[in-house]
């Protein structure tokens, strides 16, 4: 199926309003020489922008955020379904908490420890990179 040629006054008509057509090579499948089919040009521009935007930090952040929300929902469901109290013996004290809450605290503690270790490693790598740039 092909798109019809633009007519004077159409929304994508490049020659409307007295503008001169672009002097370029014919577009593949275009029936007009010397002008660019604006629909095909827009499709190419959108496709190029979409391929350039794949794998961005924003995309990774969004995927991480969605996964975090899903894990949080599952954790909340688990907490609500496990209201039984358990006794937790730590080094210096004992606590009587619901099972779900105690596991939530454990998950938060694990996330904090992981973040601290990851931050320390990033700091270490940045220091090594600065040293390498300074001496290199």
Summarize this structure as a short list of keywords or feature phrases.
about 140 residues; mainly alpha; flat; 3 helices; 2 strands
If you had to describe this structure to a student in words, what would you say it looks like?
- The protein has 136 residues and is mainly alpha-helical.
- 57% of the residues lie in helices and 7% in strands.
- It is built from 3 helices and 2 strands.
- The protein has helices at residues 38-52, 57-81, 99-135; strands at residues 85-89, 94-98.
- The protein has a two-stranded antiparallel sheet.
- Helix 2 packs antiparallel against helix 3 (99-135).
- It starts with 37 loop residues before the first helix and ends with a helix.
- The model is unreliable at 12-23 (pLDDT under 50).
Determine the number of helices (DSSP H or I, runs of at least 4 residues). 3
Helix content: 55-70%
What is the strand tally? 2
What order do the helices and strands follow? HHEEH
Q: What is the gyration radius calculated from CA atoms?
A: 30 Å
Give me the secondary-structure category. mainly alpha
Mean of pLDDT: 77
The description of the largest β-sheet is:
2 strands, antiparallel
Indicate the multimeric state.
Answer: single chain
Beta-strand content estimate? 5-15%
Termini Cα gap: 59 Å
Low-pLDDT segments: 12-23
List the helices and strands and how they pair.
Blueprint: H1 38-52, H2 57-81, E1 85-89, E2 94-98, H3 99-135
Antiparallel strand pairs: 1-2
Helix pairs in contact: 2-3
């Amino acid at each position: 199926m092909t798109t019809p040629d633009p007519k004077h006054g159409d929304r994508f008509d490049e020659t409307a309003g007295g503008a001169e057509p672009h002097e370029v090579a014919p577009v593949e499948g275009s029936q007009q020489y010397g002008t660019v089919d604006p629909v095909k040009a827009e499709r190419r521009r959108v496709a190029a922008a979409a391929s350039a935007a794949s794998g961005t930090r924003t995309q990774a952040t969004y995927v991480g955020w969605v996964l975090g929300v899903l894990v949080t929902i599952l954790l909340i469901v688990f907490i609500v379904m496990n209201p039984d109290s358990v006794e937790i013996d730590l080094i210096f004290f004992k606590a009587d908490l619901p099972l779900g809450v105690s596991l939530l605290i454990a998950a938060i503690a694990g996330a904090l420890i992981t973040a601290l270790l990851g931050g320390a490693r990033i700091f270490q790598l940045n220091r090594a990179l600065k040293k390498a740039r300074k001496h290199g």
